[in-house]
Specification:
By secondary structure, this protein is an all-alpha fold. The protein is built from 2 helices and no strands. The mean pLDDT is 77.
Length: 95
């Protein structure tokens, strides 16, 4: 089964190579996505016990969750930019 269409490539060898790479990378990426999802869900579940145990107010938890989200968003943009530059084949993101 091909993940990538044959029409995308000039030769059958290139198509076969990219399909082998995709079949090896996609399961790993799926596991990473699952772990990231569980991490985000865990923050919500942690609030249920943590707020009562340490006396955390809703405002303090909201601030902490906002800082977590902001840090994630700030790290995601440069990472996406670097990955897209790498996929294009340029040596560095500045190219």
């Amino acid at each position: 089964m091909n993940l990538i269409s044959r029409n995308t490539f000039n030769s059958a060898q290139d198509c076969a190579l990219y399909n082998r790479i995709a079949w090896r990378i996609l399961p790993f990426l799926f596991v990473l996505y699952l772990v990231a999802f569980l991490d985000r869900v865990n923050v919500g579940f942690a609030k249920l016990q943590m707020a009562a145990d340490i006396g955390l107010s809703d405002m303090a938890f909201g601030f902490g969750a906002g800082v977590f989200l902001s840090a994630t968003a700030c790290a995601r943009s440069p990472a996406t930019w670097c990955c897209s530059a790498w996929v294009r084949g340029s040596g560095s993101p500045a190219s």
